[in-house]
Amino acid sequence: MRNHRNERRASSRSWDAVAGWYAGWVGKDGSRHHRLLAIPALLDLVQLRAGESLLDIGCGPGVLAPAVAAAGARYTGVDLSPKLIAIARRHHAGSGRFVVADATRLAEVPGLETGGFDAAAFLLSLQDIDPLDAAIASAALMLRPSGRLAILMTHPCFRVPRQSGWGWDEKRALRFRRVDRYLTPLAVPMQDYGGGRSGTTRSYHRPLSAYAAALHASGLVIDAMQEIAGGGMNGAHLSKAERLAEAEIPLFLALRAIKRSGAPVVTGWRR
Q1: C-alpha span between 209 and 249 (Å, rounded)
Q2: Interior angle at CA 187, CA 10 and CA 102, nearest 5
Q3: Within the chain, which residues score under 50 in pLDDT?
Q4: Which of 114, 121, 188, 252 could crosslink 161 through cysteines, CB 3.0-4.6 Å?
Q5: Burial status of residue 238 (CB atoms within 10 A of its CB: 0-12, 13-18, 19 or more)
Q6: For the chain, domain boundaries
Q7: Which phi and psi angles does 187 have, rounded to 5°?
Q8: Distance between CA atoms of 39 and 68, rounded to whole angstroms?
Q9: What's the CATH fold of domain 4-156+185-236+252-259?
Q10: CA distance 263 to 260
Q11: Residue 91, phi then psi, degrees to nearest 5
Q12: What is the pLDDT of residues 150-173, one digit of tens each?
């Protein structure tokens, strides 16, 4: 029998190996994509009110914390990488608290109250967490009834690691998005990051139906969705065809789901 808990801890060590690189690349306040697209979209979905509490799952270096604190809400960030949590505490300790925790076992973490949060978020983290069902169920346990879960991720229909990319139709002078695989779930080893760093992180691709099914199985009902294009993020040097493609083909997908109590079981979702 395979020890999945030990596999998740091994994954944490791989993120530890690149924690300094990742935090440096993202920056203290997040990358341009974080600041201009991802964080505003997530906050728009989660609709935090002053005095509420939010759990940031897979928080990394904690770039969401200042925005949550600025909204007057209480912030808790969790991540399985101790080095990323240490960086988050160094940069953002004044905006909330940070805890080393397995996203798939949050109910076992001392100091995290089951049913104690008004909102939870996966900000560009859920596609790095496996298994999906356990991560969603764990998040649902942390939410109060009618609590909101916001998920922002690279769009799984168009951004499949190593299985999608840009193409160019010479005859039509058209830039297009090529997708080689979509329905099959994939665990994709990502590149090493150079500089003598060891360990390789993984990105987990799943089709949209897998996310819908996992949310439904945990008593969460999708009530809002945004598809967010990255147009204009790569500079004015882009051609007309490139600008059109970036404006029309989404970079991010954002979902909001509400925790329901005593909801009837529906069997319509298929994976």
Answers
A1: 20
A2: 40
A3: 1-13, 194, 263-271
A4: 188
A5: middle
A6: 4-156+185-236+252-259
A7: -110, 105
A8: 10
A9: Rossmann fold (3.40.50)
A10: 6
A11: -90, -30
A12: 999 999 999 999 999 999 999 999
